[in-house]
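Format notes (please read before filing issues)

Several people have asked whether sequences and structure tokens are stored in separate files. They are not. Every record keeps both together, in the order shown below: the sequence lines, then the token lines. Line labels are part of the format and must not be stripped during preprocessing.
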Amino acid sequence: MSRLHNEADVPIEYDDDVIDKPDSKGNTVVSPALVKQALLHIMATECHLNNAIYGSHAMIRSDLEWFAPSMPHSSVLTVFEFMGITKTWLGFFDAFLTPPLRFSDEAETRIRRRGTPISYSLHVLFGEALLFIMDFAVNQRTNGLHLYRLHDDLWLWDHDVVKVAGAWAEMNHYATLAGLKFNAKKTGSAYVGPPANTSGLPNGDIRWGFLTFNLSESRFVVDQNDVDKHIVKMRHQLASTKSVFGWINAYNKYMTFVLRNFGGIPGNCFSKEHIVDMIDTLGRIQRELFPESATGGAVSFLKKTIEERFGIRGLPEGYFYFPISSGGLELRNTMLELLALQRRLEPLIIVGDKAGDIDISDHYFHQDMAIAHEKFPKYMEEDKKNYATLKAGWDNAAEYRRTTTRYTTDVVPEAFMSFQDYVTLREIWLSTWGALYLNMLETPPQHNAVLTPKVREMMSNNLGGKLWNNMDWYEKWIISMYGEEVVKKFGGLEAVDPNLIPVAMVELFKTSRMKLK
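Then the structure lines:
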């Protein structure tokens, strides 16, 4: 029930493009995009966990077809009546759900019997109440299996394919009773493990954004065919823009969309191969969007455009990435967001092609931190050592009790649990496994650029700009990589006098919605 409001006057946005922002009391409201990303991390982590412990993993993904406009009013009111809602409120809900509708002056007036407009908070209440019964039914039928649900998007998984198939049968049974229908195009399943009866699972693939679950690799991979379709759309949208700022606004939003549909910044549950796939695909997008530029990509395209329109040549690369407040164009460097991840690739970024410019001691690929599919199996090996240590401590304490006079007459020390009993505690009690599970869900931070003497000198002359310690990791990397050439071209880190920049107008332009062509 994550879409229900915490406060009556603070709505929860439905739009996935909304970023985290504070509510009226200053508390951060997590965006739907990050909620979905967290779910993806749980799915990937659970897959690794089940494969390591049980050797199998089954999962289902589905979606209710036209849920908002097809929601039966009789089902909603029946659920509310079952929950004990008073007749007064039932009458109010009935009146809200069934207004008379007429779509033209000549058309017949009819009473709406299905559906609710999604712009109302009551729509969220009706939908959550109706689907909560399905959540509960699945939990009871499968002895505790959890149905993850965002709006009407449904996800469930377990190591036991029979349990997952039983959950799917219960979902279909409830959908039939409630007058709902699953969307066949968005329904699919996957099973990895020894041969088993999967006839109870629905047909179709498991998909998440641009990712699809690969059975042979037992992980999510980028669907290149889906990416191809969006490259065509992106090329068309960029071509329809009329200004440089409009082009950059469209480009930045599309790259944000692409990265989000790759699962966002990859968590620890994703392997090195996943990150390499993302980087390779981003590179391919650049090459296919700008085939005339072998290596320059968006920057080369913008340089050519500005030269043709305004006759300006020789602009440094950093000018395009610098923030608008410094006189730059604030082009999004999506590749940098992946390359700067700590402990992920070897080596990551070396400023100025000199290893001495930054501290690279922590930039090399660390197996224990980065190979997601090996983390749980390695901990299974550690269980033997941990068990031996705990058993030795228990046995030493038992021996002490046996040889101590005050314990000999009335206390018989119990034997320590068997190793088979010990490993059954992995998912419910062992703190080491709990810590590892939480670590898999975390997103590694980006490595901060080091303030080198050259950068410190540039910053000392940047009288009106930000201080180094007040910059985020992205700004530090942009300054470190491109600052020197910007200073050489413009004499400082500010290409334009900040007082002459209509920052508010540009920010309004950036946050406006794109008109799709």
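For reference, the curators noted about this record: Residues 344-370 have pLDDT under 50 and may be disordered. The chain has three domains: 28-208, 224-363+447-511, 368-441.
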